[in-house]
Amino acid sequence: MELRHLRYFLTVAEEKHFGRAARRLRMTQPPLSRQIQELEAELGFELFDRARRQVELTPAGVVFLGRIRGLLEGLDQAVHEARRASVGEIGRVAVGYISSLAYSGITDLLRAFHERFPKIEIALREMSPQAQLDAIKERSMDVGLVRGLVDDASLASACVGRDPLVVVLPAGHRLAELKRIRLGMLAQEPFVIFPRQRGPAFFDQIMSLCRDAGFTPRIVQEAPQLDDIVSLVAAGFGVAIMPGSIRRAGRKGLAIRPIVGAPRATLYIVWRADDTAPALREFIGFVRSTFVKKKADD
């Protein structure tokens, strides 16, 4: 039994006339009649009562029609959705992001993406940069947003933003009186920082900047979450160097100052180099174009 036989049967059942059905199918009547006869022979029962002037369904034909119509409608829907998936209009993308992006417009980004691609499901999870890279390589995550260049042949990446770094101080700190801070001024300060294993690239960038300023940071406290670092700084445990987006957190008890020379943390979007899923490609393209537009607007 071929799919075309079922479509021929449905058309004849709807038209109740072989001639009209043949015209609708853009074929002549004799071949259509033969196709229906072949279908009936294969099924072992008649579908149409041809004794009358108007073609009528047999009782078996009525039952068969009820099932076939739903089957063909479901098939058409499946083809339609598969076609949309093939061009990235529907699908699912698992996205990892670093905690600082909670203050950098990721909510607005996802809202805009959902408006553009309402049928693409986004599964969002806050993760450390290293955890994102591991999950992407293990295929439990499709794409990540991390700070720092990714050096892994199995992963592809693209720069999507540069965020000025700032010094975060307790509100009453003596350096809070300054409009800008030279990193060398922090040589004797205790530091609160992310553990290196959570984000090696960003950690190493901070260490390198401090070494270039003539000192090695005296780390007194490590905290895995951005909110934990901010809380420890506000409580007076030390100072921190963080992306400037932390300003949007609106936390009390902090003084946030730009760094002389305006060093920046680079944001990358990362995915598996061999992943060609259309929905993923749409997401990557949307993120890249959105950040480029945002940069132009700024």
Q: Report the strand count.
A: 11
> Helical percent range?
40-55%
CATH topology of the largest domain: D-Maltodextrin-Binding Protein, domain 2
Global structural class: alpha/beta
CATH homologous superfamily assignment of the largest domain: Periplasmic binding protein-like II
Beta-strand fraction estimate: 15-25%
Give me the oligomer status. Answer: single chain
* Whole-number count of domains: 3
Spans of 5+ residues with little confidence (pLDDT < 50)?
none
The helix/strand order is HHHEEHEHEHEEEHEHEEEH
CATH class division of the largest domain: Alpha Beta
- If helices are DSSP runs of H or I spanning 4 or more residues, what is the number of helices? 9
Question: What would you note in describing this structure?
Answer:
The protein is of the alpha/beta class. The protein folds into three domains: 3-86, Orthogonal Bundle (Arc Repressor Mutant, subunit A), CATH 1.10.10.10; 90-160 and 266-297, Periplasmic binding protein-like II (D-Maltodextrin-Binding Protein, domain 2, 3-Layer(aba) Sandwich), CATH 3.40.190.10; 164-264, Periplasmic binding protein-like II (D-Maltodextrin-Binding Protein, domain 2, 3-Layer(aba) Sandwich). The chain is 42% helix and 23% strand. It is built from nine helices and eleven strands. The protein has helices at 3-15, 18-25, 29-43, 59-86, 106-116, 129-137, 200-212, 226-234, 278-297; strands at 48-49, 56-57, 90-97, 119-126, 143-147, 155-170, 190-193, 218-222, 240-243, 254-258, 264-272. The strands form three sheets. Strands 3, 4, 5, 6, 9, 10 and 11 form a seven-stranded mixed beta sheet that branches. A hairpin with a 6-residue loop joins β1 and β2. The longest helix is centred in the N-terminal third of the chain and has 28 residues, at 59-86. The two termini are 63 Å apart. GO terms for molecular function: DNA binding; DNA-binding transcription factor activity. Belongs to the LysR transcriptional regulatory family. It comes from Polyangium fumosum.
